[in-house]
Give the backbone structure.
Amino acid sequence: METYKKEIPEEYLFLRELEKKNFSKYLRKLANKLAGKTVIFYGAGSYFNTINEYYNLNCLNILGISDIKFNDGSFGQFYGEYKAIKPDEIIKVNPDYVLLTTRYCLNLGLSLIHKFSGTKIQVKPLVNKGIFELLNGG
């Protein structure tokens, strides 16, 4: 991992958590599992920004990133290097996966699973979380 830069709110905390979870290794496994599949990230906050700053996500076939804050159009067509996709446009884009890039993802995940029922779109967290961590707000 690169040297901590302290540019993103809570960056150090997030990096420690990602290292503890051996995120680099998990990301490689995830990339192999999702080879040939398309993904949209959901969540354009500090957690995603930290992951994007310190880890190479190009191993995934990324169509873009979605966040409720894109609904007002103030972010334009791109969020950094990724196409900005409004949440209501995800079904139209039709990715294979929506990867949750928020730290607290249980309620959001359940909401999106319900929203995408009847479609091919699968929802999962980008960062592997155990069931007890999810239930405790993680």
Remarks:
- The chain has six helices and six strands.
- Residues 132-138 have pLDDT under 50 and may be disordered.
- The CA atoms of residues 97 and 122 lie 5 Å apart.
